[in-house]
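ok trying this again, last paste got cut off
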Amino acid sequence: MSELVLGAVAYDPKVVTIWSGFRSWLRRQGLPFDFVLYAHYERQAEDLVRGRVDAAWHSPLAWLRTRRLARAAGTQVWPLVMRDTDRDLTSVVVVRTDAPFTTVADLKDETVAVGAVDSPQGTLLPLHHLRGQGLVPGVDFRIMRHDTGVGLHGDHIGGERDAARALMAGDVAAACMIDANHLAFGLEGILPPGSTRLLTRTAPFDHCVLAAGPSLEPELGERLAALLQSMSYADPEVRHLLDLEGLTRWVPGRESGFGDLSAAVDATGFYDPVGRVTAYGYRP
């Protein structure tokens, strides 16, 4: 059996701990497995399609680019697994509790804080949602972007955290973030309890995907997926790794939860139809 090599983006030091732990566990189950780390998702997506790695732990944006690159190259990629916590998420647009805004329309001519330029949950999806509500970003309202961790596709949540701080400082009328971070920033004290309220919420979307590339032997991919889905949260060793990665179990990968993000990518020209990076000013 040949060795399976997975790519992962080093958005945080814990990534080394997580995938070193998964590597040890998978190898004990008889799967020849190793991983390499990337500084950003764009190179990882390119290398997956070119067969330089067999699989990749992808952001939702990286998964969309991978699909476009693979289609243009006439090659095959597919989703293997995702976390149970990657399904049916939402992002929110929040305002201060004492603000006069009651509807999305009230944000006209105001300033809205977002995360990094390449953050699906902190920028692309909520701005696409506001566009669908009748407000054109950059035309009907101003955008204050917070480009922390560019190239990490929002995995570094510093941009969303800075957007929340801008809201509390009174620099903006509203701020965009994933729902879970709205709660987390409350626990951190950045958004004190009772200080904000929800103005609108995006439709549900899916997040990260463990993607298989053209160099991955199908049987090896099936073995990896089966082993990951067999991980039990009741196992103390496995539980530690799952907690670090933010899940309780692995579930089958699916492609049904990326429609709105794909539409946002098209509307903004973030990638072109064949997967080239065309977003203005984006340099990972």
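PB: full thing came through this time. The chain is about 35% helix and 20% strand.
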